[in-house]
User: Fold this.
Amino acid sequence: MVDISTKTARIRFLDTNRFADVFIPEDVEIHKNDFIVVKTQKGEELVLVVGFSVPDEQDAEEIEFIRKATEEDIKLFDKLEEKAEKGLETCKKFAEKEGLKMNLLKAYIPLSKNKIIFYYTAENRVDFRNLVKELAKALKMRIEMKQVGVRDGVKMAGAIGICGNQCCCSVFLDKFESVGIEMVEEQNLPPTPSKFTGICGRLMCCLAFEQDNYTIRKNLPEIGSELEINGQKLTVKAYDFIREQIIFTDEENKIVAYSFDYLDSLNLLKEKGCTSCSGCAVK
Assistant:
């Protein structure tokens, strides 16, 4: 049971599937899967409690706890979702009429009903001034157009990755890490884009999960270099980062494997922090 005098709720926004933290007053008891009402820059919002956490003060947002959601709050949210869905269809028709190249993802109306937000992706800048005027007349609400990245779009919509599971971004990712093509090379992945490209068309977020495991690469002897181990002359053929081994071939071209730890015990790895290959690993 969480100590309710010190807990901080981990919440999930229902429009973007984004996570955040909010402090809960001492006299309020909430549990996982409860709905609460918070105040953000968008207004009052219904959010889902997914657990409890220790907040990162550096990334803290201005989110204020208002109350534990009532049945009326949930009913109002459902009605606003229906209204937002109709607004999205209207927006799509107007955008098509204007010839705007944008992919409309979702419409969202906060509980405070102060505006309707349209989330979209686009490759280039979109001039939606006329679109906003038409929408304001038709919906009689304040209109806000919010462009998001393609990765945010998948996070909002949800999708199944090539692994067969839901995309990490829509399940648990707080924020998107920088993912570069060098990660593909370091992790010895096959040079097939479909193997490391996500549904969003960008490099898969999961490439960053194991990147720290590959930092030892700079301490390993170079591929093709020769080492003498236990009286055998061996040639480095490959790295197996999953098993934490180096694969060698001996003079008869037989495969031999030794763990990183064993090679380190023989002082056959470069000193940590070495970033150049001067042959110091070859004994």
Notes: The chain has a mean pLDDT of 86.
